Amino acid sequence: MSETAVIVGAGQAGGRTAQALRRQGWQGRILLLGAEPEAPYERPPLSKEVLAEGADPLKAALFKPGQLEELGIELETGLTVEALEVGARRLTCAGGRHVKWDRLVLATGARPRRLACPGAELPGVHLLRSAADARALAPELTEGRELLLVGGGFIGLEVAASARRRGCRVTVVEAAPHLIGRALGPKVSRHLRQLHIERGVHIRLSGQVAAFEGRDRLEGVVLADGTRMAAEVAVVGIGCTAEDGLARAAGLDCDDGILTDAFAATSAPGVWAVGDCTRHENVWLGRRVRLESWENAELAPQIAAKAICGKPEPYSVVPWFWTDQYELNLQLLGLTAFEGELVWRGTPLAGPAIAFEIEHGLLRGAALFDAGRERRPLRQLIEQRVRVRADSLADPAVSLRDLAKASA
Ligand SMILES: Cc1cc2nc3c(=O)[nH]c(=O)nc-3n(C[C@H](O)[C@H](O)[C@H](O)COP(=O)(O)OP(=O)(O)OC[C@H]3O[C@@H](n4cnc5c(N)ncnc54)[C@H](O)[C@@H]3O)c2cc1C
């Protein structure tokens, strides 16, 4: 009898796993179970085009019409899996239905952290993770409205940029002394701060929202130091928590994310995990890492599908992330906080520019401001841990492609 691969979580990583299993030759059933009502879609547009231009939240759907049938993938949406039994190879869904599996892939993603303070449930206070969240938020961002972003991370700043394009008055309150927290040290993030200030965003650093206030809906916030600020709409963007509860309850090893090896295998036989819900081994990094990134949700499914289909290949890649704010495209390579020695090529916000982080003569990471065309050679230089000269990196006349070619 043919075997069944079940995927829990029909987001980007879940959908890609289903596609990759077929591509790698999985002959059995593929069952893709997801709690959201929609078929899998990519989330990056939600904070960008969807808010700024009113684009369809499902514009980046993973499956073309007819593709699920073509690939023989059985998708069930609006279905939450509530329990996992590893020994019995069985899932229990909401409503009590049981589903048996021969191979299981967990792709349960992450959930946004809520602010545990008075008024956090008031109408007008939003989170942004899903198409439903974006549909609720988009109509609130009207001209002249007072929007407050709690958290100056990537999501908060992308929403700030989109809301400015809609004519909102925008304030960002960030608890840390600089924007983007740990992902981007102050030497690089100050340029983002400058960009937002130039675009009319009011930024309050080292500030903490202590309460949301309002009678029937949000009217303002109170900061921990007693400052009161007007706000008609707020978006809480203070990071996400890995959705690893199902795995933890089933006894799988977890540590702020489901622990996986370089082949996406969990501690339980026959169970793999991919995407935001994992803390996965990346051979290039030489350690486990929890990433919330589009690329990880693309790559990890390929690794899991190959392992399931008997063609194991380890996950080994220089992490890459991008963000779009106003016209700026910022790309980050290498998972570094840019707190060490930095070399700049070009001036950010005045044209293409790159910040390189160098450690002991090796290129550890790069932040590319409108310089995406250099991503490929830079990735190669970082990946191969090539020794580079700071003056070559700083000199725009030196081709990064040539440096990468010379190192190949
Ligand atoms: C607004 C926004 C903008 C972003 N922009 C960027 C960007 O510019 N660049 C970038 O690199 N990354 C970006 N990201 C991150 C990227 O979208 C995520 O890393 C990616 O979506 C992770 O995919 P995933 O499948 O692991 O998780 P998700 O997409 O969260 O999917 C998980 C799915 O599992 C379902 N689920 C969870 N538990 C269960 C259960 N028990 N039973 C059934 N279903 C369940 C959830 O409902 C969800 O549908 C952005 C994310 C957001 C929210």
Automatic annotation (TrEMBL):
Q: Where is the FAD/NAD(P)-binding domain?
A: 5-297
Species name: Tistlia consotensis USBA 355
Per its record, what are the GO molecular function terms?
dioxygenase activity; oxidoreductase activity, acting on NAD(P)H
Recorded GO cellular component terms are: cytoplasm
One Pfam family named in its UniProt record:
Pyr_redox_2
Q: Which domain of life is it from?
A: Bacteria
Note whether Oxidoreductase occurs among the keywords.
yes
Domain (Reductase C-terminal) spans: 320-404
Q: Which UniProt keywords apply?
A: Dioxygenase, FAD, Flavoprotein, Oxidoreductase
The reply on keyword Aminoacyl-tRNA synthetase is no
Cofactor(s) needed, names only, are: FAD
* Name listed for the protein in its UniProt record: 3-phenylpropionate/trans-cinnamate dioxygenase ferredoxin reductase subunit
